[in-house]
Structures
1.
Amino acid sequence: LIAVAHLAYAPAPQIKGRPAMAEFGVSVATTARGKGFGGRLFERAALHARNRGIDTLFIHALSENAPMLKIARNAGATVERDGGESEAWLRLPPDSVSSHVDEALERHMAEWDFQFKRHMRTVGDFLDGVAEVKSRIRKVRDRSDDRPGGPGSKR
């Protein structure tokens, strides 16, 4: 894994009379930072939350966590700093037929991509096995050619 996100929410408003909200968090491996993985996971989480009746995303981060705060700001969130900690709030639009179709398409494309890569790995493993068998056959032939009385020797 190079990046993972969490979206924590209750399926109904947590406080009576207030809209439902969810908390978003993300972790990206040091070697994969700066490539947009966190932002992409944020977009996916926001769409997922929106389609489940969540109308506000909440992000809690250290003020020094510039990449996380940048993701929030780029999405249009309001960021409030309080010393070493920051909170970001993003209002989500209500779900629509289009947002549900978008989510379904993303899910199916991700599944297709995963299955394609899985099958390509299987094909690659098979071809590696064939190459190994060919290599062993070649070694056995080479050894038999080197023996006295072998196919390559003179009698």
Note: The radius of gyration is 27 Å.
2.
Amino acid sequence: VPQPSQPLLNKDILRGITGSKEVRYCREDAAAYADRWWKDGNPEFEVFEVDCTNYVSQCLFAGGAPINYTGKRETGWWYKGYNGAQEWWSFSWAVSDSLQRYLSAGRSSGLRAETVERADQLMLGDIIQYDWDGNGHYQHSTIVTAFDAAGQPLVNARTVSSRHRFWDYRDSYAWTDRTAYRFFHINDYL
């Protein structure tokens, strides 16, 4: 019986740790990864039928967000791929609403974020999530990769691949007049 692979670890980050538990989130690296892989998925990861949150999680990881491996799909934030037909990743890695709950939870270290009120308060590498019907269940995730001349975020996404798209998604077939947004500013130190 093949053993499951080890969780992916960002070795560049691990080499930089000398007794410090905190890692600086590199917003530029997260955005560069987002611009590199927005159209065709990175072959080191599965490409899901609904791929937006898997893609955003990869971008966060590329920016230095440390894996929180628990071995339980309902907890942590982690990715290991497949072991045979078994899916080895946390729901927060791959499911929009689960990532929203993970980022909303208070924790003292690791991947964490604060909710801000407006899109123009976000920075490169921050996350916007979308609740299309306003029922409190978030169905889409994007990452801020640029800004327009007015300082409004432009985002990248997958599932329907988008690069430097205006953040409000009013041009999307999924948008409704009940759409609610969650704006997450990723902590500078994780």
Note: Residues 18 and 115 are 30 Å apart (CA to CA).
3.
Amino acid sequence: MTVLRKTLKESLPEARARVEAALKEEGFGILTEINMAATLKAKLGLERPPYLILGACNPSLAAKALEAEPDIGLLLPCNVVLRETEGGVEVLIQDLEAMFRVLPEATQRALAPVAEEARTRLSRALSRL
């Protein structure tokens, strides 16, 4: 799996605040949040380290993607994972260019500029951390 990745030497709440601020600078907001550790604990009784999945969206890019391919909503929003590890908090961001390779070739071509811009913006956000 192709991902953009960085480990931060801070607490999960601190890392989350920094991630959200960096994403905001690139025009992304958080639409959804899934607390996997809490869900697995509640539903299965499993103890896991903190693991958050944030659904980030840049409305301008989402609009362009939907215009090019109405079914693209199946691949939105952009997932950003924050997971606690022994070394700190690992931040993972899905690589949209790699993810869009599952689409038909004509759709890939239509979405290439959007995927490239999104990847650039997400990479810049990650580099700010």
Note: The longest helix spans residues 105-128.
4.
Amino acid sequence: MQYVYRAVFEPDPDGGVLVTFPDIPGAITHGADRADAIASAREALGLALRGMIAEGGVLPPSREDQTGLVEIAVDPATALKLAVIEAFAASGLSKSELARRLGRQETEARRILDLDHPTKLALIEAALAVLGREIVVSVRDAA
């Protein structure tokens, strides 16, 4: 699961740079210049993906055949929470079963699956392991 989507950067008629995501129609933002637009795009993308999950939706895959577009990644904390939530949804487990497998209370499992509740990396890693996933870190040049 990679939370990287391609964005269209184009001049905004009102000035600055307009950013849209073909795969995420609700993610539209603007920046005063390219650097500001990239920062705004990361935030807009994260918020749009969070909103899709909160509404019970499934995140669309990012199409790889879109040449000439700019790859934008959500922030790492959001990406990890989205990964846990998607893995949990695919697992068919209940929250109480996830908690049992983690050796935690069900309230803590609920917090792990809450996009608005911060969760420490070690606990996210443990939850992903229980769900048959692992975190792989990648570092790349900035857009």
Note: The mean pLDDT is 93.
